[in-house]
Design goal:
Elements: H1 2-22, E1 25-29, H2 36-47, E2 51-52, H3 60-67, H4 74-91, E3 96-99, H5 105-114, E4 119-124, H6 127-136, H7 147-153, E5 163-167, H8 172-184
Parallel strand pairs: 1-3, 1-4, 2-3, 4-5
The structure holds adenosine-5'-triphosphate and D-gluconic acid.
The site of adenosine-5'-triphosphate has 18 residues, from α2 and α8.
């Protein structure tokens, strides 16, 4: 009887810890081709929360602009960021993982304003690694020619931003494991 109660208490504690952990909304950020979709899906499965794909929030005009080889500007990105922020706000307290390049600090500020408590996983890789992966990828609208503008626009997480930096050199499962472990230590 006592043992059953103790086991029940442990189960409740584990459940509570898990819900605290998964109640956070995680934004997987970084330049195009860094693995946001691949790693984000694995991370969401590991945390047991839904995954949302940033590209699904783009307007057709934004997609057409990128596909034609022109980088998006701030005005193009605000409505897209607001749509992602709305998804994150809706998931607040229940948890979720969403990909979003979130290249500039002001973009992350916008997301945090919509959904306070967001945490970021910055997937970081060298230009060579990312460029090779992006070029090998098939069936995606994003042209490799935009890689320079992506790196030029990227502003790394600052000291006061809650998040972790993860190297994408290893395979996707390792990167997702590393991200999950780093998030647990936040
Ligand atoms: N850690 C990894 N190791 C090896 N290949 C990877 C890794 N992560 C992603 N890839 C591969 O690199 C390519 C780009 O990954 P993915 O589409 O997930 O990037 P992304 O950041 O979501 O890109 P975008 O922002 O352009 O949508 C894919 O072909 C994917 O299979
Ligand atoms: O901020 C941006 O420049 C864009 O959002 C891109 O990053 C794309 O969404 C994506 O990376 C391509 O799939």
């Amino acid at each position: 009887m006592g043992a059953t109660c103790a086991a029940g208490g442990r189960a409740q504690r584990v459940e509570r810890e898990r819900s605290v952990e998964t109640g956070r909304v995680v934004v997987v950020m970084g330049v195009s081709g860094t693995g946001k979709t691949t790693v984000g899906e694995l991370l969401a499965a590991d945390l047991g929360v839904p995954y949302a794909e940033a590209d699904a929030f783009h307007s057709p005009a934004n997609v057409a602009k990128m596909a034609s080889g022109t980088p998006l500007d701030d005005e193009d990105r605000w409505p897209w960021l607001d749509a992602i922020g709305a998804w994150a706000a809706e998931r607040g307290g229940r948890g979720g993982v969403v990909s979003c390049s979130a290249l500039k600090r002001v973009y992350r500020d916008r997301l945090r304003a919509a959904a306070p408590g967001l945490v970021f996983v910055h997937l970081h890789g060298t230009r060579e690694v990312i460029s090779a992966r992006q070029s090998a990828r098939e069936g995606h609208f994003m042209p490799s020619s935009l890689i320079d503008s992506q790196f030029a626009t990227l502003e790394a997480l600052e000291a006061d931003e809650v998040g972790v930096l993860v190297d994408v050199a290893p395979g996707p499962e390792s990167v997702a494991r590393e991200a999950a472990a780093a998030l647990r230590k936040l």
